[in-house]
# Entry
Amino acid sequence: MRKKSLDHFGELQRAVIEVVWELGEASVRQVWKRLCRNKELAYTTVLTAMQRLERAGWLKHRVEGKKHVYLPTRTRAQAGAGSVKKFVQRMFDGNALMLFRQLVEEGELSDGELEELQQLINKKREDRRK
# Structure
């Protein structure tokens, strides 16, 4: 079963997975307390969001006493890579170079950011030679 992209989930579910990524693993209560710092939410609302993320394959859990501890099944980088690929396909017909041109030409990149991009390009070239 292919997992839905995080782009398909609502704001609450994305916020939940962000908290779990941040903590590494978390109980519903831990996530609920974090999210309630910014907005009042019912505990059961957070529980439902976590259960839906588990059914969708984004979280798994283990039982510790009476509580469930949830763990992510994908890293933030893995999730981001999938979203970026879909974005490039949708907006640039799969042509990543067009995206980079747009970012470099239209973006306001600092000298440090341009240097970092150059280092990434150089590393990619070195990796391809190996």
Q: What stands out?
A: Residues 6-72 form a domain with the Arc Repressor Mutant, subunit A fold (CATH 1.10.10.10). The chain has a mean pLDDT of 91.
